[in-house]
Each structure stands twice: as C-alpha cells, then as structure tokens.
Amino acid sequence: MNTPDFTAQRAALADVVAIPVTPFGEDGRIDTEAHRVLLRRLLDAGVRTLTPNGNTGEFYALDPQERRAAVELTAGASQGQAVIIAGVGHDVPTAVEAALHAQDNGAQMVMVHQPVHPYVSADGWVDYHHAIAEAVPELGVVPYIRNARLPGSRLAELGEACPNVIGVKYAVPDPVTFATFAREAGMDRFVWVAGLAESYAPSYFSAGATGFTSGLVNVAPAISLSMIEALRAGDYPAAMKVWEQIRRFEELRADDGAAYNVTVVKEALSSLGLCRRDVRPPSSPLPSAVRAEVAAIAGEWSL
C-alpha cells in the first residue's frame, strides 16, 4: 500500500493555522450566516489554513451535530481555497467518527485534541492517537500536545507506526521544553506548529517551529500574516514589533488561566459588528470594565 503524499498538508501547517470562532445567534444556536461571513473574511485576507472545532471555536461546548456543522460550513465557505484541519477528540470512537465525517466533507487533516481524562499514561497517549490515525490513513494527523511530561521519544514511536502523523501543535508554554521535545521526536519528521499563537511564535520559531495557530487572526488577519512573513524571513525585530502590537490583546486572553481566551476574541468581533459576543459555559462574558479596552484595540487594528 502506497503512503499518501502529504506535501500540501505539511505546507499548510507551516503557516498561520487559523482557529475560527463559532458565532452564536440570539437563539443560542450557531449563526450560520455570521459564520460564513467570518470565514469569508479570513479567506479574502489570504488565510489558507482553517481549523474548525478548535478551542477558539469552543469545541468542548459544541454538541456532535454542531461540530459536524462547523466542518461542513467551513468546507462550504472555503470552496477549495483553504486546507481544512478538523478538530476531533473525546473517546476514540467519537474521534474516529468525526475524522471520517471530516474526510467525507473535504478536510485534508485532523487535529486531535489532547485526551481529556484524569489518568493519561504515555503508552495510553500513543495508543489513543494510533487508533485515530489508523482509521484515517489518507488524512494528515496533528496531535495537540499540552503535556510537558510527554517525552519526544513517544511521538517518534507514534510517527514510526503512523506515517500520516505529520505535524504537531505544541502548546507547552516553555520554549526550552519545546526545543528538547522536538529534537527527541525528530525535527524533520514532523511539522512543528507553535500552539500558543502569536505570543510564543517568535521564541518557538527560533527553536524550529514553522507555523503557529491563531485565534487573533479572526479579528485582524493582516497582523497575523505580517508576523508569519517576518518569521519566515528570519526578521525577528520585525516579528517582535508585531508581538508588541498584539501583546495586550493576548495578555487579556491569557488572564486568569486563559478564562477569557475565546471571550476576548468574540468581544473584539462584536465591537466590529461581525458577530455577537455570546460564549457558552463554562466560558463567560467579559467584565464590562474590560470590554471598552478590547473594543479600542480592535478599532485601532481595523484602521
């Protein structure tokens, strides 16, 4: 059996990997029209990698039907203009079913959310991802790693068993840990995506990352694209100018253990008239005192 060529998928990971929001209407359901407008805005700006059902899309607050709808809406809006990486997770059968649905609807990759379980062993982590990757051999598979204790050797083991595990969204907030993990796993074997967005992108790129995820891109796609251009050129002073520009916005998202990670993005979009600010529990709306600050930042970026 021939191994599929994942060249296009690997290239898509070495880019701004956008995590679109999932806008809700007044009735609490997905606002499909606002969803299309937001996706079209990203595509028109030049974003070419989209991850429906990422954390900025409130993956864990969506029911299975809504997660399927998010993939279908993204595929319909992109019409082949973007590479789609569908977020999947939960138990293995649910993740496999979601991956197969994504494949049927034009996704080229799946991003596997970290296993949500109180007892995760390294062996179990490998088995979990192996089962998902094995079920969709023609899709690129991207583990989402937030566990600083997982050794790179276990990812190398997974990659040896599953050729379609092609990239990693690494989201441990420690560039040294990332650099060590990537070298233990194999720098060239995987595409390394800085999973903590623009704030960590410069430091992670210096250690070998070639792409980064972004929720901020929903608000100001030109800013995210300017950072990837600077990083690709090795122009770290230019990248840090972008970092300074987005610093306060990302600090607000990270505040209180990232409690307002999605809320800040939706508040900014609401201030621009692009969607409602509504988020679902266990997230919550921004305190009123912070809303004006978010609106001011978004307004300045939109000039």
From TrEMBL:
The keyword Cytoplasm does not apply. SUPFAM superfamilies: Aldolase. Keywords: Lyase. Coiled coil: none annotated. The keyword Lipid metabolism does not apply. Belongs to the DapA family. This is Dihydrodipicolinate synthase family protein.
